[in-house]
Write a structure and sequence with these properties.
The chain has ten helices and six strands; from the N terminus they run ααβαββββαβαααααα. It has 317 residues and is α+β, with helices and mostly antiparallel strands. The chain folds into two domains: 129 residues, no CATH class; 106 residues, no CATH class. A hairpin with a 4-residue loop joins strand 3 and strand 4. It starts with 28 loop residues before the first helix and ends with a helix.
């Protein structure tokens, strides 16, 4: 079974951001899988999380935050770029792993058994996964997804790669990316922290104008009547794209600040955790599906967010 890193789901220990007592154990599928891929390789993925300083409210949702490809290349020598799935995906995955590379593939959650409590065999939702090992003859796949490493086989294997009959011919192939590990030096120790500090300062300098949470608050007040009239699925979709997205971003950003700055970033870290906790409270308030004034809750996360970024301006270089 060709394997990229020799990892076993039975013994794999996820990164600390995906374990322990946290407000959000997961962020989004793409950031989560890169955290675990880098962690499994022996790198510190928190070094690459400074880009979160530039997240914004995009008008109807918060930024779907993904590590900056240029940062990954600078810090870890990792290059990620789109590739063309022109032949059966299992064969492409097998060949790339044999060459010491891997692929990120958008899969259908219907066939992912690690989602047994949500969309496995209940809902067709696209989600990104990193291929860790594949057995094309035995129809087994090991993959990084969300907060860990998992394995599927048999019917799920045939379904996730559309190998069995009954699939419509008008469905496009999945979006795929190639991950290479030979794109530059791999930093560690003081060099990694120094580079991470410089990247944080760069991302702070390019952040959008202040007032993102104020814009979100205005949009939420306008959206709330429709959310209360809609069904539960509408609420879950809205919450994931808004409060959960920015709340999980703030908590991972807090972990980045803790790792990078230590005591010098303690006050900013506390503010960022306040944002994560406040977003969780707002999610729970929305889940009650009753009319309320979101203004005070939004203000309760807006102030520590702006304060955290201002404090980081003073300590990042």
């Amino acid at each position: 079974m060709p394997s990229l890193l020799g990892c076993d789901p039975a013994t794999y220990v996820p990164h600390e951001v995906h374990s322990g007592e946290r407000t959000y154990r997961e962020t989004n599928c793409y950031t989560d899988i890169l955290i675990e891929l880098l962690h499994a390789r022996g790198d510190e993925p928190l070094a690459a999380m400074g880009f979160i300083a530039a997240v914004d409210f995009e008008g109807d949702q918060w930024t779907f935050f993904k590590p900056d490809p240029n940062d990954l290349q600078l810090l870890f020598g990792v290059d990620i770029h789109e590739m063309q799935p022109y032949r059966p995906l299992p064969l492409q995955i097998e060949q790339q792993i044999e060459h010491g590379r891997t692929m990120i593939v958008e899969l259908d959650s219907w066939y992912l058994p690690d989602l047994a409590s949500t969309s496995y065999r209940t809902e067709h939702v696209k989600t990104s996964a990193v291929m860790e090992a594949i057995d094309t003859a035995g129809e087994r796949l090991r993959y990084f997804h969300n907060a860990g490493l998992y394995e599927l086989e048999g019917e799920d294997y045939r379904g996730v790669f559309r190998l069995s009959g009954g699939f419509s011919d008008d469905v496009l192939p999945p979006y795929t990316e190639l991950v290479r590990f030979d794109a530059g030096p791999r930093l560690a120790g003081d060099e990694l922290r120094e580079a991470g500090n410089e990247l944080l300062a760069r991302h702070l300098a390019r952040r959008p104008p202040a007032g993102a949470f104020e814009r979100f608050g205005a949009a939420l007040a306008a959206d709330l009547p429709g959310l209360l009239e809609g069904d539960v699925e509408n609420y879950h979709d809205y919450a994931f794209a808004t409060v959960r997205m920015v709340g999980s971003a703030a908590e991972v950003f807090r972990s980045h600040v803790d790792w990078l700055l230590g005591e010098a970033g303690a006050e900013a870290s506390e503010d960022l955790q306040a944002v994560a906790d406040g977003c969780k409270r707002l999610s729970l308030k929305l889940a009650r599906r009753r009319e309320f004034d979101p203004g005070p809750l939004v203000a309760g996360v807006s102030e520590p967010w702006d304060r955290a970024l201002a404090r980081l301006d003073d300590v990042a270089r």
